[in-house]
Amino acid sequence: MEIQFIKGHGSGNDFILIDEWTHRYTFTEDNRRDLAAALCSRETGIGADGIVFVMESVHADAKMRIFNSDGSEASMCGNGLRLHGRYVLDKLGKNEIVVETNKADLYVKRDGDIYEGVPAYRVEISPVLFDLAALPMTIGKERLFNEVVPALSDSISFSAVAVPNPHLIAVGGRELIASGEQKRIAELLNGVNDITPDGVNVSFVHPIERGTLYVRTFERGVGFTNACGTAMSASTLTTCQLGLNDFETPIEVYNNGGKVRCEVHQHEAGRYSIDLIGNGTYMFEGTIHMDLDTPSHFTVHNQRALSEQNAYERLREEAESYLAARVF
């Protein structure tokens, strides 16, 4: 079988994009899991945090499903949605679309440039849920906002939110980022445990100044990643709730792969939504030759590098210099 693919990224959170819709590929659920595990391996595969599948929707412009590098399926992914949305926007020749995801129908629209030569895409992050049952997370209470969880740490305060991916967020200074506690806590909560049986994304957040923050995320099913779109969105929301940033205002969010912008919107009845604005950059494309029964035995042909990554590298280098001076 031949499978056309594009390798791309949002803020360095990299994905293999496969268009099932227009190429008329027919994959089973096992096929998608096996493809993710085989192709995303950084040792023996193409290498990526996950696979973005572009699929047909019966009521939206297109459907997105994302499988992590370990073969598990993500509820949603903001960085992946930007990449998926860019592909569908270009395919349909539109400036705004609605994408069906596992939890909600979300808009994607073109949004100028986030940096010279780097087009930006604005995606909707919702629903936003605070009940711990939505994560799920079991600590003997219904919600968690800026509180110590003794089973995790006697000094670090956490907030929990699902967007709809589950996120546990700690906000603090440079010493929190340098503490090494994030790895310990994230590995605990993503192993066999009674607190988060399905695992959870764990982010440590450093508010650099009003309107600017840094987020590092241990992503469920992936591990430490350059960026996680829903984590940056949830982290920005938490800083707004803490009064460290302002609602309805663009906020610069730096990560290990570059930066994005987030805007948190307040609605009636205590509801929130978040806009995530950032790149959806293509790195290279090619053709995979494989037998779906033995996905680990594949070859890549006609691989072609794409030049737009050069502009993103300039953004990333500026972001690295900024973080070296202000965070690390």
Features:
328 residues, alpha+beta, Diaminopimelate Epimerase, Chain A, domain 1, 19-stranded mixed β-sheet, 39% strand
Task: Give a written overview of the molecule.
This protein has helices at residues 20-23, 29-39, 78-92, 174-177, 181-189, 229-241, 309-326; strands at residues 2-10, 13-19, 50-55, 62-68, 73-74, 96-100, 105-115, 118-125, 147-148, 157-162, 166-171, 201-209, 212-219, 223-225, 251-255, 258-266, 272-278, 281-290, 298-305. With 328 residues, the chain is of the alpha+beta class. It has two domains: 2-123 and 279-324, Diaminopimelate Epimerase, Chain A, domain 1; 132-278, Diaminopimelate Epimerase, Chain A, domain 1, CATH 3.10.310. It has a 19-stranded mixed beta sheet that branches. It is globular, with a radius of gyration of 19 Å. The mean pLDDT is 96.
